[in-house]
TrEMBL record:
Organism taxonomic ancestry: Bacteria, Pseudomonadati, Pseudomonadota, Gammaproteobacteria, Chromatiales
Species assigned in the record: Nitrosococcus halophilus (strain Nc4)
Catalytic residue list: H62 (proton acceptor), Y131 (proton donor)
Signal peptide: none
UniProt cross-references to PANTHER family, sorted A to Z: DTDP-6-DEOXY-D-GLUCOSE-3,5 EPIMERASE, THYMIDINE DIPHOSPHO-4-KETO-RHAMNOSE 3,5-EPIMERASE
Residue numbers marked as site, Participates in a stacking interaction with the thymidine ring of dTDP-4-oxo-6-deoxyglucose: Y137
Recorded family membership: Belongs to the dTDP-4-dehydrorhamnose 3,5-epimerase family.
Function: Catalyzes the epimerization of the C3' and C5'positions of dTDP-6-deoxy-D-xylo-4-hexulose, forming dTDP-6-deoxy-L-lyxo-4-hexulose.
CDD domains: cupin_RmlC (cd00438)
EC number: 5.1.3.13
Subunit structure: Homodimer.
GO biological process: dTDP-rhamnose biosynthetic process; polysaccharide biosynthetic process
Enzyme type, top EC level: isomerase
Stated name of the protein: dTDP-4-dehydrorhamnose 3,5-epimerase
Length: 181
């Protein structure tokens, strides 16, 4: 596997080594030792999540305050535009975002560290989205920043107005959000 820094250097694009043959393909979607060697990150994943969404669904921008989660995200069916936003006030990339195309075809994964908000837009008919997290879901600490916050100005590849949950429609502005030191 290869781990490449994105324009936000702590957000990493992971490219697994894929073995294709006449039967199909095989790859290690996660290997603790290989991940640590390629990324220098000692992550302890405690939860695996799986969601499925239709085209134009946008989930995000989500994060947990006080119990932040690092996320290793990937797509096993379809394609998404996946976004991470740096919410750490002390960071030189505070308030900056990065977006990557993750698909079942390219098999790329994104490492979204603690202290970042995360969201994605579905670009295919549907997308199955899998991710590992370094801490447990804690609804009391769950926070949401609006996906279309003007200050963040994320350049989502939208074809029409996205389908957003009621919870996400009630997301707060970046400038009003509870953030990290
Ligand atoms: C995230 C999560 C949700 N749930 C429940 C709560 C709710 O009833 C239902 C759907 O939850 P949500 O609407 O929050 O699901 P969703 O919008 O898919 O939330 C996810 O979005 C992406 C962008 C992330 O980054 C994730 O960390 C997570 O916040 O599932 C859990 O039981 N455990 C979990 O870990």
């Amino acid at each position: 596997m290869k781990a490449k820094p994105t324009k936000l250097p702590e957000v990493l694009l992971i490219e697994p080594r894929v073995f294709g043959d006449k039967r199909g393909f095989f790859f290690e979607s996660y290997n603790k030792i290989a991940f640590a060697a390629a990324t220098d990150i000692q992550a302890e994943f405690v939860q695996d999540n799986h969601s499925c969404s239709a085209r134009h669904v946008l989930r995000g921008l989500h994060y947990q305050i006080r119990q932040p989660q690092g996320k290793l995200v990937r797509v096993v069916a379809g394609e998404v535009f996946d976004v991470a936003v740096d919410l750490r006030r002390s960071s030189s990339s505070f308030g900056h975002w990065v977006g990557c195309h993750l698909s079942a075809e390219n098999k790329h994964q994104l490492w979204v560290p603690e202290g970042f908000a995360h969201g994605f837009l579905v670009l295919s008919e549907y997308a199955e989205f899998l991710y590992k997290t370094t801490d447990y879901y804690a609804p009391e600490y769950e926070r949401c920043i609006r996906w279309d916050d003007p200050e963040l100005a994320i350049d989502w590849p939208l074809e029409k107005a996205p389908l957003v949950s009621t919870k996400d429609q009630a997301g707060v502005a970046f400038k009003e959000a509870e953030l990290f030191p």
